[in-house]
């Protein structure tokens, strides 16, 4: 069975597509067979990122390693069983087309609560939740007292993950390994940065996730998207000397892959 990695967060702008692209491409470059699905049927940022990669590679005559992307197939409504949800069938069919051939399947979820996202979370062996390093995004995980900073209780997204965990437990599946990834970290040791770290540390023990640093705010990520490239592809497209920022970003990716603790994977790039 392929190991399923779900990248989910119900708020947009947290770097889900960048995270999905770098994880899936890093695994593919290390020789793993990786499948990819984009469940954001409207914006399709991850799908467009991969399509940009295909177009750029073909135009430059390059062969760049990457995941095998599949669209969710269309399903005839008349073929559904009584009470069956059409999105469940589409997701199941897409996974069935990948699972036998892949070591990993990465599923990028939309930045909103949808049926597809809900089902995908229950399928996750590893759940990655990119989070901007801000209490605006922290509110997605938990409610806090604005005066004392005390955690009052889990918020809507955490409750959805809890429900997904219950579904897996009832089906006799292993528990979800949940990694919350702090993106857009500032370079300075700012007071808010420390408060976020402390709050995440307390919450992680309460609702059961691991916290990891992700990607800092860097111009390079905005420049890579139109060509469908990742940090690991720069040498393949003629960048012989990486600047300090690029070297630091590659180390962030290496640390992220290590912190995922995926079976058999060592971040040897």
From TrEMBL:
Organism: Vannielia litorea
Lineage, highest ranks first: Bacteria, Pseudomonadati, Pseudomonadota, Alphaproteobacteria, Rhodobacterales
Domain of life (superkingdom): Bacteria
PANTHER family in the cross-refs: COBQ_COBB_MIND_PARA NUCLEOTIDE BINDING DOMAIN-CONTAINING PROTEIN, P-LOOP CONTAINING NUCLEOSIDE TRIPHOSPHATE HYDROLASE
This protein's name: Chromosome partitioning protein
SUPFAM superfamilies in the record: P-loop containing nucleoside triphosphate hydrolases
């Amino acid at each position: 069975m392929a190991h399923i990695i779900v990248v989910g967060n119900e708020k947009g702008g947290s770097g889900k597509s960048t995270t999905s692209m770098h994880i899936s491409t890093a695994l593919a470059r290390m020789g793993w067979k990786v499948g990819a699905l984009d469940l954001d049927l409207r914006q399709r940022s991850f799908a467009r990122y991969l399509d940009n990669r295909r177009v750029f590679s073909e135009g430059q005559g390059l062969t760049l390693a990457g995941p095998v992307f599949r669209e969710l197939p269309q399903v005839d409504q008349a073929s559904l069983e009584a009470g069956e949800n059409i999105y469940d069938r589409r997701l199941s069919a897409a996974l069935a087309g990948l699972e036998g051939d892949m070591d990993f399947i990465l599923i990028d979820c939309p930045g909103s609560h949808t049926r597809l996202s809900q089902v995908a979370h229950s399928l996750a062996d590893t759940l990655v939740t990119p989070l901007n390093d801000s209490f605006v995004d922290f509110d997605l995980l938990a409610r806090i007292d604005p005066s004392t900073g005390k955690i009052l209780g889990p918020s809507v997204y955490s409750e959805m993950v809890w429900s997904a965990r219950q579904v897996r437990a009832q089906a006799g599946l292993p528990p979800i390994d949940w990694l919350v990834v702090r993106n857009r970290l500032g370079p300075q040791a700012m007071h808010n940065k420390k408060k976020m770290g402390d709050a995440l540390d307390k919450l992680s023990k309460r609702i059961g996730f691991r916290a990891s640093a992700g990607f800092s705010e860097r111009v390079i990520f905005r420049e890579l998207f139109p060509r469908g490239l990742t940090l690991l592809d720069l040498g393949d497209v003629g960048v012989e000397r990486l600047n300090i920022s690029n070297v630091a970003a590659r180390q962030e990716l290496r640390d992220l892959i290590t912190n995922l603790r995926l079976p058999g994977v060592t971040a040897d790039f």
